[in-house]
Design goal:
2 domains; Growth Hormone, Chain: A; globular; 582 residues; transmembrane; two-stranded antiparallel ribbon; PTR2_symporter_CS; membrane; single chain; 64% helix; mainly alpha
Length: 582
């Protein structure tokens, strides 16, 4: 049995020994730092809207957009983290460096929320609330976006570095990798659970500065634990920046757009050894022109000959790319339909940590006589649904499915489809619940104004009525997140796995940004002169149920598009290559 890996090295740069590196121990050390990142980021996100409304005195829609912009930027910066990891730093250093940014940002946020000079004076019963100044908001946003930078760098590399600890060519370790994706999400959901329960409770009872300070210390400890595994990790070899490679193929194909392509006649360039080559496919044939060899591709055409060594030494990567490189770009293009149709789910998810929390602020949250659930902790049902779904799937569904069907459960595309359907149903339930809440608000003749004091009046309706929408969207997230993670990592080329992870995380980013965009547009279109449209400054004067209904319609259209894309992909994969014409 070969215990040395050809595509991974140990910390000294020698071929990695399977017996001494990688496996579940290494993966667990990596997961520890992700738990702390998730705890701090989600601990901030799920309760940030209450801080912006109650303490900083911002309107409802603006507060929701501030949260989604923060989360969107966090995930968009994953592309930057992925680029640095692939081009310069590697995943190990990228995780260590950006984890330090995460610890710094949460530490600064603890200070910013402690100093009274960085927040407006509290509201009095006989005066209007003063909105936070630009300086106060600027300091708050500076801390948040340092945290976003740390989050982006971490998330782009953690899942990929964890997957690197398993060998895809080993059947036993390949099976372990399938379990890793589910357990990875289970671990980070545990971090979210700690965030929406313990951390949010500490924010409400002890103060936000204490909670954020603890997050900063926890991240420092996690960095120490992560570094302790340096000798046990497997480090995959870097192949350079995949972004540059993609651009090179596109530029080379564009330059040769007038070259006549003759299947079976045209000579194609290849620089990979036989085991690493990807065979040419007939899809997206216009890109194949980037691999056609011509004399003009030589740096010195006068010395051109048919020697393949000279081609590899003298060629310009911006004029001639290998067949394998072209096929890698094609593989990335094939990911785009799934990428595009999963963005909307994260727009729906954004409502669970923004408007659903705002709903909880107005509702009865008492348990017994002395305890009141913090509004941000209402999302515990969202996280609980995720954890229960993952546990049941991991311990019951996967073993049963493997015994009966011979496979380890639903494939990644089936998971995504299930998640999209459940999220659409979740929006229907959310619309019905919000309609009921508005009926109660009108029955008690609530006369809230835009002042933040009145917006905190409690309606005689229990917060537990929100549970169904949290359960549906949480279960959907469990399927979609693991399905996306598996799909983008396993369906991408070896040298572009970090980029594909960033591509996956960009769907979350764009989903949050799309939420901000839709909220702004809906507010403008339906706002009216008094700002009491669908998304009024006070949700008791708005029609949030209509907004949820609108998201349901978009979800069904998106689900139909996803099914169409999968059917098209399957049809293409089943079609004989000889029947395709370029």
């Amino acid at each position: 049995m070969n215990w040395k890996m050809s595509d991974a090295v140990d910390y000294k740069g020698f071929p990695a020994d399977k017996a001494k590196t990688g496996g579940w121990i290494s993966a667990t050390l990596i997961l520890g730092i992700e738990i702390c990142e998730r705890m701090s980021t989600m601990g901030i996100a799920v309760n940030l809207v209450t801080y912006l409304i109650v303490t900083m005195h911002l309107p409802s829609a603006e507060s929701a957009n501030a949260v989604t912009d923060f989360m969107g930027t966090s995930f968009m910066l994953c592309l930057l983290g992925g680029f640095l990891a692939d081009s310069f730093l590697g995943r190990y250093l990228t995780i260590a460096i950006f984890a330090a940014f995460q610890a710094l940002g949460t530490g600064l946020l603890a200070v910013a929320t402690k100093l009274p000079q960085l927040r407006p004076t509290p509201c009095n019963s006989d005066e209007q609330c003063n909105r936070a100044t630009r300086i106060q908001l600027g300091m708050l946003y500076l801390c948040l976006y340092i945290i976003a930078l740390g989050t982006g760098g971490l998330k782009s590399s953690v899942s990929g570095f964890g997957a690197d600890q398993f060998d895809e060519t080993d059947e036993r370790e390949k099976t372990q990798m399938s379990y890793f994706f589910n357990r990875f999400f289970f671990f980070i959901s545990t971090g979210t659970l700690l965030a929406v329960t313990v951390l949010v409770y500490m924010q409400e009872e002890l103060g936000r500065s204490w909670a954020y300070g603890i997050c900063s210390v926890a991240m420092v400890v996690a960095i120490g634990v992560f570094l302790s595994g340096t000798k046990r990790y497997r480090y995959k070899k870097r192949f350079g920046s995949p972004v540059v490679y993609v651009i090179q193929v596109l530029v080379a194909a564009l330059r040769k757009r007038n070259v006549v392509y003759k299947p079976g006649v045209s000579r194609f360039y290849e620089d990979q050894i036989q085991d690493n080559r990807i065979h040419q496919t007939n899809q997206f044939c216009f890109l194949d022109k980037a691999a056609i060899m011509e004399e003009s591709d030589y740096s010195d055409p006068a010395k051109a000959n048919n020697d393949e060594v000279n081609w590899s030494l003298r060629r310009s990567s911006w004029r001639l790319c290998s067949v394998t490189r072209v096929e890698e770009v094609k593989m990335m293009i094939r990911l785009l339909p799934v990428w595009a149709t999963t963005i909307l789910f994260w727009t729906i998810y954004a409502q669970m940590i923004t408007f659903s929390v705002e709903q909880a602020i107005t509702m009865e949250r008492s348990i017994g006589k002395n305890f009141q659930i913090p509004a941000g902790s209402s999302t515990v049902f969202l996280v609980g649904a995720i954890l229960v779904t993952l546990a049941v799937y991991d311990r019951i569904v996967m073993p049963w499915w493997k015994k009966c069907k011979g496979t380890t459960g639903f494939n990644n595309l089936q998971k995504i489809g299930i998640g999209l359907f459940l999220s659409a149903i979740g929006m229907v339930v959310a619309a019905l619940v919000e309609r009921r809440r508005l009926v109660v608000a009108r029955q008690v003749k609530t006369t809230m104004t835009t002042t933040q004091q009145n917006s905190r009046d409690t309606l005689p309706i229990s917060v537990f009525i929100l549970i169904p929408q949290f359960l549906l969207v949480g279960t959907a997230e469990a399927f979609i997140y693991t399905g996306q993670l598996d799909f983008f990592i396993t369906q991408s080329p070896k040298g572009m796995k970090t980029m594909s992870t960033g591509l996956f995380l960009s769907t979350i980013s764009l989903g949050f940004f799309l939420s901000s965009f839709l909220v702004s547009i809906i507010k403008i279109i339906t706002g009216g002169k008094k700002g009491n449209g669908w998304l009024g400054d006070n949700i008791n004067n708005g029609r949030l149920d209509c907004f949820y209904g609108f998201l349901f319609v978009l979800s069904m259209v998106n689900l139909a598009a996803f099914i169409f894309c999968i059917a098209w992909k399957r049809q293409k994969s089943n079609k004989e290559a000889a029947d395709e014409k370029c």
